[in-house]
UniProtKB/TrEMBL annotation:
TPR repeats: 82-115, 122-155
PROSITE patterns per the UniProt record, alphabetical: TPR (PS50005)
Record InterPro entries: CHAT_dom, TPR-like_helical_dom_sf, TPR_rpt
Protein's name in the database: CHAT domain protein
Keywords: TPR repeat
Domain CHAT: residue ranges: 378-645
Organism domain of life: Archaea
Amino acid sequence: MSGEMKREDFDKMILSLVERYPNPEEFLSVIESLGIPKDERGASFLQIGITLYEFSKFRMALAAWNRALTYYIKDEDLSGESACYGNLGIAYDSLGDFARAIEFHEKSLTIDREIGDLSGESKCYTNLGILYEESNDLTKSLDALKRSIKIRERIKGEIDLEELRTSFHAQVVSTYDALANVYLKTGEIVKSINTLEHSKTRELADFLFYAEILKGKPEFREIIQEKARLKHKVEINNKWKNAISEAEKITADSGINQIKTEIERTDQKYAVVSSKLQRLYDEVAGLHPRDYDIVSNTLSILKKERKWAVLEYLLLPHESELIVFIINEKGEINPVRTEYDKTRLDSQITTYTDAVILSSKKDFRDKAEKRLKELSIDLYTTLIPKDVKKALDDLKAEHLIIVPHKELHFVPWEILNDGKDYLGLKYSISRNFSLDLTSIAMNKQTNINDGNGFSALLMGNPTLDLNGSETEVNKIKEKLNEKLGNNPTTLTRDKATKENFIERIKTPLNIFHFSGHGTFQFPPGFSSLVFNNSSELTANELSGMRFKGSPIVSLSACETGITPPIKGEEMMGLVRGFIVAGSPSIVSTSWRVYDNSACHLMVEFYKNILENNCVGLSLKKARKTVFEEYNGEILHWGAYTMYGDPFKSIF
């Protein structure tokens, strides 16, 4: 019905008609009079119902979907009929009529089974699972949600392309969240966390598992390098596709066809390489059961360390609930439920983003600092409920491992303030996208020596415009020399090239330090470190490389710590690239840092490491030193974040 009409204009037209004709039957008659083509009537009323539902016109949406259902039944269109039943179920759920909602979702499920629509069947089970939970029938809820996930995982297992798997997995994340919530309501806390964990960063966690198993196969490394190279080309091509489509409308230039052909070839090559990699995975898939116990595995590794606590978060916006799982070194898990306002949280994150942008402008730094200080207390109140604060205080932990969820990955955890202390000054904080990634990082091989007992690569001021970064690496070099009697490889200015980095990481390293420019770009795989001659090393390229050894990586460069999760809770950006390359512990920054305080903090960081402190405590102490030196200004110490293993040391 809407033809070439833009969605926004279509919505406005429908809402205008609803306002003029508030009676459902009268409204539907007016729509019928518009002369909808016979074969489009079902689809048109289905879309009208969706528009009405999105604007909370639930009763009118019901009328539109019932009319669509009439036409779909008349046309013997089972797929359309199922869609109508599903939408009717969603509408009745919104109206609080759970019994009717269940009735319609069951009708939709029956049809989807009949026509073999596995994706539709999975969605029906998810909707039913949520409805049973709302009706307090937890047994039926568990059964339905588990059936939904089983079907989705079966479909995903047949997809070779990582990007398609990630996109597909994003559709089932809410089902995992719902199942985790139901397990928690039944008192099965470990199953609740395991369910949540199995929805997080699966592509990265699976890759790291298979990389360890297959590292002895030369063909595996070759395929990984080729895949990284082609992925970079594919993402560049994707940026051009829209422009090419527009160009085709105004010109018949043969060059456009040549470009399209080249893009298709690259896509085909990438698909072939992805299939080869998947076949290698399939050979060892039996060693990696899908339902393995992540919680027990992580606890068995964490129990080797002392004075730590884990906070793992679960956001349930549908129920306006925030759940915090507090895990202590005894292996005890205490879940805390609290209410939260999604609109308020989104506003807080926007305020943070705006403050960071302001901080890059000299004339607005004071304003940015003020906003961050206000926000630090506001966010603490939202994310660290009183029961969580009390539990942490009672535990007397030194190390705090935070596993955020969804938009909480954007939160500046280090600067959260209870009115007395900042988290990043009170604890050694490490952020991870999952418990699974924490255990993988802690399981990485310890230091590899080059015969002299220690090896470091320091690179600074590659773009010749950051004298402070050159001073920084030279001071770090002096510290390492003074303590270890070892002369680390130090490359500055025109020696700080991408080629030299690639060559040097082929030898064993304990430390890689980069001080220069970093960029965050979209897609995040384009985020990069900038070397001499403006040569960029992207996150995509890093994913095809491998460190010799498992070095601590510190990135004293702007925006290197921005790791936005894409749908499906997949970790992206430079930090991911360095994890894939083999680093277990990565220090990076969340905003633009200042030369003097950056130099001071990083020199202190290495001073602490050389005094046999672990990475996490070294960073905490360095933050505290700079906090005291710069009058507590957040902009000077708050940008530094740590991912991975907080307990790693160089000795």
